[in-house]
Amino acid sequence: MTEPLWTAQNAAKATRGTATGDWHATGMSIDTRTIQPGDLFVALRGPSFDGHRFAADALSKGAAAVMIDHVPDNLPADAKTLRVTDTQAGLEALGAAGRARARAKVLAITGSVGKTGTKEALRHALSTQGKTHASSASFNNHWGVPLSLARLPQDAAYAVFELGMNHPGEIGALVRQVRPHAALITTVVAAHLGNFDSEEAIADAKAEILEGLLNGGTAVLNRDNVHFARLERAAREQQISHVATFGEAGEADVRLLSADCHANASDVHAVVHGLELHFRVALPGRHWVTNTLGVLAMVHAVDGDVRQAADSFATLTSATGRGARRHIQLAAGTFELIDDSYNANPTSMAAAFDVLGRAELGPDGRRIAALGDMLELGLHSAELHAGLAAPIEQAGIHLVFTCGAEMAALEAALPAPLCGGHAEDSEALGALVAANVRAGDVVLVKGSAGAKMGRVIRALDALDQTNGSQEGSHAS
């Protein structure tokens, strides 16, 4: 039997709530579409939904109990519940209790790009060294972080959390819940610029992750980032005595000596606090090389085995929507699909173009980019979208399809031979790209989450003539 994560008694004590029934929860859920038998379902509220409507459904799917702040009309009279004053506050209380009882070394990650990928690489590396818990997907906001903390097993050796933000003050509130032993800022670039006055303001918001670092903890910073001095100063202001750095700069504690970047992997030579290492990263792109340097700095910060961590990178895999690759079978042959549809900003776009530029083509194949809007760039949006033309040409991409009002600026900036077509939205773009792709091509799909580029992925998946082709479809 799986050891309970929460019992009626300790959950009630943690939340100062009232439990009905004697129940034991082995997991936590806020979504009945993915709930597992034995989960404690938390009925959260949002601007356009109320989880209380689904409490009865959660119980019918095997939930151990439901956390509610009022009794829904359709809830059975004998339902097992945890009644609290407010379910968001109740979730945060469970998260705080989960963190307080944990014995794990806790690590936190933020940054303008690379948060989720670096979190997954760190999870992967530490999992070879002890029981490791990490936030699912990109659960990095005001409900995702306390949910991840509430899911933290008491016997975990390591716990890895991703912290995100759209506005100042958000990361500070999250990191004070997480209280990490080590905190990493991957990099600071122009993302969410529409909500900030400058990149410097973004750097200050990312530096909030240092506010919750435990005494004696380590701040891990990108030595190559233009805002390094600002971030290092923030660490000093927080009286953090341990600052570790990574990058190509000669002063970096974890320093890249060389990297041979191939179509599907990279061979890396680096030095980690004096230890020289050679290792392979099983994912393509220079950005993945940088990500692994940050991971090694974090492993070292919590006294892990950096050599073992480096060896683990040979088996890294991409998550859905974050560079995952697969072949789609057409009548005349296959084309390769690079699904990077989850999110986008100018820096991650350039990194994706580099990966596409290194991809191996089939006979008569072309490198094709299907791109949706980069959102939250404010007054700089048109300039930043048009600025993608240069890295596209440098990567040797043959054809670019775009959709959305913001991407119109890129279409106007591209040389005419590179313009495959522009669509109003991703639904139309999917049909356009599907009509033009051919065997031997490699197709990159990328855009901000709000651009709903999953629709383009679905349109390309629908071309697959192999059995079970629809299994690879994704939500937008």
Short structural summary:
This protein has 476 residues and is an alpha/beta fold. It contains 16 helices and 24 strands.
Q: From the alpha carbons, calculate the radius of gyration and give it in angstroms.
A: 23 Å
Class from secondary-structure proportions: alpha/beta
**Which CATH class of the largest domain?**
Alpha Beta
CATH architecture of the largest domain: 3-Layer(aba) Sandwich
How many strands in all?
24
Main beta-sheet annotation: 9 strands, mixed
Strand residue percentage: 15-25%
Helical segment tally? Answer: 16
Question: Mean of residue pLDDT?
Answer: 95
Family: Belongs to the MurCDEF family. MurF subfamily.
Pathway: Cell wall biogenesis; peptidoglycan biosynthesis
EC number: 6.3.2.10
Main location: cytoplasm
List the topology elements:
Blueprint: E1 6-7, H1 8-15, E2 18-20, E3 24-25, E4 27-29, E5 39-42, E6 45-46, E7 49-50, H2 55-60, E8 65-68, E9 81-83, H3 87-101, E10 105-110, H4 115-127, E11 132-134, H5 144-150, E12 158-162, H6 170-178, E13 182-185, H7 199-206, E14 218-222, H8 228-237, E15 242-247, E16 254-261, E17 266-272, E18 275-281, H9 286-301, H10 306-312, E19 324-330, E20 333-340, H11 346-358, E21 367-371, H12 381-386, H13 389-394, E22 399-403, H14 408-413, E23 419-423, H15 426-436, E24 442-446, H16 454-461
Parallel strand pairs: 4-5, 5-8, 8-9, 10-12, 10-13, 11-12, 13-14, 14-15, 15-16, 20-24, 21-22, 21-24, 22-23
Antiparallel strand pairs: 1-3, 2-9, 6-7, 16-17, 17-18, 19-20
